[in-house]
Amino acid sequence: MTVISRLPGPVHQEWDWQLQAACRGEDERLFFHPSGERGRAHDDREEAAKRICAACPVRKRCLDHSLAVREPYGVWGGLGEDERLALLGPVARRGR
User: Fold this and answer.
1) Closest C-alpha among 57, 65, 53 to residue 8
2) For the chain, which terminus, N or C, has the lower number of CB atoms within 10 Å?
3) Annotated binding-site residue numbers for [4Fe-4S] cluster
4) Residues contributing to the annotated binding site
5) Tens digit of each residue's pLDDT (9 = 90 or more) over 11-46
6) What torsion do the CA atoms of 7, 54, 93, 34 make, to the nearest 10 degrees?
7) DSSP 3-state helix, strand, coil percentages of the chain (rounded to 5)?
8) Closest CA to 88 of 59, 62, 67
9) Would you kindly state where each structural domain of the chain is located, as residue ranges?
């Protein structure tokens, strides 16, 4: 669960980058796995999402945001849940 106290305030400069995101207008189900999705279906969906992220002009900003708020779900900034967790290190894994 996202801890709301870590989210930045509702200042438009903090969120304007989302207007430029390559995923804007895409089906959000591509970026967040349904309950119970495993194996090939999961891998194919996640790879499709990451292809969109690869060409995104705000990819780094998206990834930075997801790490700052410790977003536990979905593909953000071209990285999946486990990849982001690995970047956050052992402290984040204990709090999961």
Assistant:
1) 65
2) N
3) 23, 53, 56, 62
4) 23, 53, 56, 62
5) 556 678 899 999 999 999 999 999 999 999 999 999
6) 90
7) 55, 0, 40
8) 67
9) 12-21+37-94
